[in-house]
Input
Amino acid sequence: MMTTGSNPLTVLLLPEPAPAVRRLRAEGWRVIAASDPCQLRRLIARARPDLVVVHALGEHESGWLTAAKLSRMIPRPEVLLVDPTDDLRHERLARFVGAVRLDSDHPRAIARAAREYAPAGV
Output
């Protein structure tokens, strides 16, 4: 994992990343916002982040497909899939594609989940 001291690194692929970026940075995270799934995969390969956050409703491809592709990377990044729907079946689907489902896209919820699901030692 690429960390500097106690500052974990996360990469985001969200429709409106600025609020989450500000919140995570305020909590000491180093944050990179990707603009599309291809850039996201390149950043992950290069930077080896502690955590990746993607939105289920991606502009270029669904977050579900992105998470499934990321689950095949080595080393496999921890993935939070933001899915603010009321469909509880999506919890199982998120696990199936190798992600943890987050049912809110609020920056505080993303930051809380990042703290909870970041790999041990981060």
